[in-house]
Amino acid sequence: MNVLITGGTGNLGSRLAIPLVQRGDRVAVFDRRSTPHFQSPEFHRVTAITGDLADREAVLETVRSLNINSIFHLGAVLSSAAEDNPVEAWQANMNGMVNVLDAARLGGAQKVIFSSTIATYGGQVPPLLLDDAPQWPVSLYGVTKVAGERLGVYYENRFGLDFRGMRLPAVIAPRGSGGGASAYCSAVFEQSICHGKYDFFVRPSTRAPMLYIADAVRGLLDLHDAPAENLSRNVYNVAGISPSAEELGRAIHKRLPKVQITYTPDPLRTAIVESWPQQIDDSVARHDWNWKPQWNLEQITDEIIEVLGNELARQ
Fold first, then answer.
1. 212 catalytic, yes or no?
2. Cβ atoms within 10 Å, residue 105
3. How far apart are CA 227 and CA 272, in angstroms?
4. Tens digit of pLDDT for each residue in 259-285?
5. What are 129's strand-pairing partners?
6. Is 286 helix (H, G, I), strand (E, B) or coil?
């Protein structure tokens, strides 16, 4: 299978490329930067294309020239960065979405897997968030992802494109902090291990749903591979863990007692994070394509400390 990953050199995309290559797919990545966020030997077998999602012709030419069968559309300007530069975010997230869907339609790709977000729901959500809860996002990032979901469903109904999406919570990874409001959930590990301290930009009690990067990668692959007849909807909620900032800090401090954890809440980013749901019902994904997270907070903490500790020792 010929696979294209947009945002393919990013935190999630560069890791997703690995199992695709390992199982024999021909993988190409499309991103504004050519160096992968996560380095691996498998990435040398990936075709890297430097380009902008807002460039319609570049996206279409990539899909056509490589005879792409499936697209994992992960490329986007994330939440905090989108608030800082809303025009750029709109061009990348909205124009880019149209360009990817049109490239799939015109270029012959049969399937698009979309990384959406729980930020599509906003602050007025029930205690247990169902897939069909009203989507009233408070961030521009969430707005563009709601529109992306609806546009993908339209392309399926109008043109027969197989469109599937997964609403991700905050994704935790070694060296995973980026432009999202959820960046603290990875940055706390990196800064604690590399610098011995971290200052949270949310309150100690701020709680957010999170998912380890390995679960996110596996979920995208499983959703892609699921038989169409098993799927009852286009876009699915998935859930992992939901620790507070204080619980994150405590898990790290238990293993690294000398780390200094402080809190200086930023009103804007705290409001975005606290607008997200805290408990997510992912029972439909569990039923339709056997989704189940495999990593808990203790396992995640052990893994990231080991990975980053080994990196630091090699420097």
1. no
2. 17
3. 35
4. 999 999 999 889 888 877 778 999 999
5. 280
6. helix
Q: Which amino acid is at 211?
A: L
266 is written with which tokens?
Answer: 């930023």
Round to whole Å and give the CA distance between 172 and 175.
Answer: 9
Q: Could you tell me if 79 and 139 are in contact, meaning their C-beta atoms sit under 8 angstroms apart? A: yes
CA separation for the pair 26, 70 (Å, rounded)? 11
Within 10 A of 286 (CB to CB), how many other CB atoms are there? 15
- Which residue in the block uniquely carries the two structure tokens 């109008």? 158
Can you list the domains of the chain with their CATH numbers? 2-169+211-237 (3.40.50.720), 172-209+241-278+295-314 (3.90.25)
Q: Which two tokens stand for residue 221?
A: 């692959």
Least confident of 80-89, 121-130, 305-314: 121-130
How many angstroms separate the CA atoms of 256 and 56, rounded? 48
φ and ψ at residue 261, rounded to 5 degrees: -110, 125
Q: Give me the long-range contacts of 95-98 (CB less than 8 A, separation at least 24).
A: 95/53, 95/54, 95/56, 96/6, 96/53, 96/54, 96/59, 97/73, 97/144, 97/147, 97/148, 97/151, 97/152, 98/56, 98/151
Place of tokens 């995208």: 220
**Token code pair at residue 133:** 């809860």
Please give the single-letter amino acid code of residue 198: Y
Q: Strands of the chain (E only): list them.
A: 2-6, 26-31, 47-50, 70-73, 111-117, 162-168, 170-172, 197-200, 210-212, 235-237, 260-263
Tell me the backbone φ, ψ of residue 29, rounded to 5 degrees: -120, 145
Reported as a single tens digit per residue, the pLDDT across 15-73 is 999 999 999 999 999 999 989 988 888 889 999 999 999 999 999 999 999 999 999 99
Give me the residue label for tokens 């599937």: 164
User: Quick check: 246 and 205 in contact, CB under 8 A?
Assistant: yes
**Of 121, 141, 184, 198, catalytic:** 141
How far apart CA 239 and CA 178 sit, in angstroms, is: 21
